[in-house]
Amino acid sequence: MKGLKRILAWTMIPIVLEIFAFFFVDNFYLNDKTTFNAKKIDSTKKTSSKISFKVPDDAKDISASYNGSYVAYCTDGVINVVDTSNNKKKEIKLDDDAKLSAFKWWPNENIILIAEKYNDGDSSYLKFESYNAKKDEKSALSNEKNKELKISLLDSKYDVSDIAMSTASNVTYVKISKEGARSRLYSINVMTNTEETKYPNCKLGKIFVENKQDRLIYEDNTNNRIRGIGLKNPVATGENGIHYLLGIDGEDRIYIGNGENQKIKKIFVINLKKTSENQKYPLPEATQKSNIHITRSGKIYINDQSKNLVTEVSTGKTIEYKGTLVEIYNFGILSKNDGKIVNTLF
Fold first, then answer.
1. Burial label, 129 (beta-carbon count in 10 A; 0-12, 13-18, 19+)
2. Which of 108, 135, 212, 277 has the maximum number of C-beta atoms within 10 A of its C-beta?
3. How distant, in Å, are the alpha carbons of 28, 225, 262, 313 from that of 242?
4. Which parts pass through the membrane (predicted)?
5. CA distance 129 to 183
6. Measured on CA atoms in the order 181, 219, 73, 288, is the torsion positive or negative?
7. Which residue pairs, CB below 8 angstroms and at least 24 apart, start in 323-327?
8. Residue 81: what pLDDT?
9. What pTM value is reported for the model?
């Protein structure tokens, strides 16, 4: 009898434990009244606040990464990158036989695309590398077969004159030019393969690329038209005068200035998919093209250097800054003041 009771006791123990486990899971772990503290992460949050560091007098091509975490500039053909959180500077070293042709920040990354030019006897070519500022790593662009990306040049006088990037499709267009010759246009796709892009016989001006469609939009300076690769007709504004391509935002809206002698009197915002959303902004006075800045978010800013003042066109809001404006990045104004690079946040 005692043996039977012992067997029953040992049998009941796992059953009781199992029932207790089900009770715990049902009433605590899977209870629909259970609450969780979730914090939304804002990917557009400013990652930099105050920027202030000395820069050499001969610094050129000063530009900030999309969020201002890093600022790059060029001296004697060397790219210098400053971490704005601690002002530490790194030099991006090129190969001994390479010369810097151009560099540009990716629109949504702390990464620089670098074009290096090589002269190898009778031949010249471009090689492309990327530099990750956060990791301080430089690597050559290569395709799936581990073949480095190179573009042959007709002669050593050709250089990269413009770069346009699509972040959604990772397509990059590179414009290669020399004085008195027709520019050549190349595309680099997400697989790091390159091919020459054909365009009508014209003097190729400024280039931008749609972010979502990865279609190249460009200035046809021979015929005073704004055109797109694959578009049958020019991008029209319905106005006479000289047309200047000012930029394309992250939603593929095209910004065209209308005026003459590099001065803009009106700004047109063209949406090729929704023409009903097209807009026109007449400016109070003709403004130098170089004083107009378009952001990825679709803001239009006008710089008045005489007053150290930037005005946002659609709202009329003004922002005062110090020194000489260098550029406008996603979150603020980058300027040079008393030998230092400083910023003013929006």
1. buried
2. 108
3. 70, 8, 8, 21
4. 7-25
5. 22
6. positive
7. 326/62, 326/63, 327/62, 327/63, 327/64, 327/293
8. 98
9. 0.84
